[in-house]
Amino acid sequence: MDRSMEQTLSHFQAESALKHYPSIEDMILDFHHTPGATVQLEDSSSPTLGPASQSKRAVIRDGRGQCRRVFLKTCPGGSLSQEFQKMLRTFDKEIGFYAHLRHPLASIQSQKSPADDASPICLDEALLQFLGAGFVGDDLHLVLSDLEVDGYRLTGRSDYHSLDQAHIAMRTLATFHVASVAVAEAHHLDWVELQQAPQSLVRDYLTSPEFADRVDASIFSVPFLRNAMWIKAVIQAQKSHHPLVPASLRIPTGVTVSLMDQFIDLSPTILSRLRLARVLPQGQRGVLAHGDFHMWNVAFSDKGQMRFFDFQMSGSFRLALIQLAVGANKSQNLTAAAKHVKEAASQGAQLVSLPECFNSPYGTNFFPEYAESVPNGESCLALKTMAADNKVFLIGGSIPESEGDRLYNTSTIWGPDGELIGKYRKMHLFDINVPGKITFKESDVLSPGNDFLAFDTPFGKIGMGICYDIRFSDLAKIYSNMGCHLLVYPGAFNMTTGPAHWELLARGRAVDNQLYVATPSPARDEKADYIAWGHSQVINPWGEVVAKAEECQEIIFADIDLDYMQQVRKQIPITVQARTDLYETVSK
Ligand SMILES: NC(=O)CCC(=O)C(=O)O
Description:
binds the ligand NC(=O)CCC(=O)C(=O)O; 7-stranded mixed sheet; 24 strands; Nitrilase/N-carbamoyl-D-aminoacid amidohydrolase; alpha+beta
C-alpha cells in the first residue's frame, strides 16, 4: 500500500478494530471468507451518508474472477444524532408509542428494585442508550434501506438516507431494542436481541452444530409479524410468564450482531477482534446494530466512535437454472440433479436452482409416495451435499414434504457450506379448472405454506415463490419491499397455461418490481401424466428475457447485474413514486 493511501485510510484504522488487522485489505478479506480472493481499494464517493461522508470502495475479486464492491464509510458525528434526539421529542406518534412501552418497562424495573418505584424510567434516555447513541458518543451512523415499518418503506439503497428514512429506521431499531431490554430484564438475561427472522430459520440456525457451542440462545414462539405486533407479543408473553424468550441470541463473548433475516456467522477470529474493539463504559449495555441488517454488515463501537462495515450489494453474479428431465425413479433424479449442479458450478455459477418437484413426477397421486421430511430426508441430504461439494448457493427446486399428517410443496435453500438457509412452502396451491384443457387440484393432497422466505447471499437478496405463486403480484411486491434483487419461482407450467402465461407472468413480475426473475422448470416429458412446458427463463429488471431454455434438459446461465438493476430503478423511479400514502401492499 502506498503512503498516501495509508494516510487516507488512517481514519478507518486509527484507534479502531482495524488496528487488529495488518491492513484494511486483510480485514475485508477476513469478513468475506472467500478463499483465493484479492482486494483492491479505490477512491469513491458514496451517496448513502450524504456529502459529509467519506468513503472508500474495495473491489474484491474471488478465485473465479467474479467481482464485488464494498463501500467503507464513516460519517462525522453530530448532526444526525442531534436530529434524532429532536425527532424523538417531536413526533407525537412515536412518543405515544414509546409511552405505550413505558409501563411494562417501569414495572419490570420496579419488580427488580422496589426502591426505584418512585422514579420512573426516563424512556427517552433509555432509548438513546439502547439505540447506541449513548455510547457511540456523538456519532450515530445509519445506513438504511429495505426496511418496511408501519406503512413506510425505505427506498433503494443508492438513495440518500434522509432524516425521514433515519426516523423510520430508528423506530424500527427502537422497537427491537426496547422490547429486547424488556425481555432481558424480565428474564435476567445479559442480552436479548429480537430478530425479525422467520421462526424456523432462527431455530434451525441457533440449534445448528456450528452455533450450539458458541451461543447460549433460547427462542420465543413469536410469529413473523410486524414490529408493533412483536412488542405486543413480547409483553403478552411476559405477562403470562411464557417460558420462552424471543428469538434471542446471547453470545457469551459479549458481541451480538443482529440481522433481519440472517445471523452473521462470525469466525472466532473476527469475534475476538470485535470484542477487543468494543469497549463499553462501565455498566452500560451496548447495542450492536446496523440499519440495513444485511448479511455481513457489522457496526461496532470503539472509544466513542462507531464504525461499521457496509457491504453494499453491487456488481454481478452468475445464476444457473437446471431444466432437469425428471422421471419416476427418485434416486436417478437425485443423481441427475447432482451431475447438473456440478456442471453449473464448473461453469462459474454461484447460485444454482433446480425446478419444482425435481425429485418426483408432478401430480397429486405422486406427492404422498415421494414426500420426505425436511431437512433430514434423502433429497435434502443430497441437496446439502451438492451445495457443499460445489460451494454454491443452491435452491433445491421443490419436493413434496411431509410433516405430521400434512404434505407441502417445499423448496429448501442451501449455502455453500451445506447449511440449510431456509425453506419455503408453496403459499398458493395450484387449483384450476380450464374445461377441456386442464383440471388440477393440489389442495386435494397438499397444505399451503404460510411464511415468506427472503434470504441474503453475499451478492444479493433473493425472494422465493413456487410456480403458481407467480400469479400473485402482491407476493412479489412484498419481496420487493423487503429489498429482494431476484425472485426465484421453481415452476412447472403445462401445455395450456405455459404458452399463454409463463413468460408474460415472469416479465410482469420483473417490470412491476424492477428486479430479476428466474423460473426454472422441469424438462418436457411428452409421456408424463402432466406435461411440463419447459422454457426455463431469466428476466432482467427491464423485462427482457436474458436467458431461455427450449423444452429439453439443459442448463441456462444469466449474469445478475445489480448495478444494472439500480440503473433501471433510477431511470424509471417507480419505487419512490409509488403513492404509499394512498395505497400499499403489506404482509400480515
Ligand atoms: N405447478 C404449478 O403450480 C403450475 C402452475 C400453472 O401451470 C399455472 O398456470 O399457474
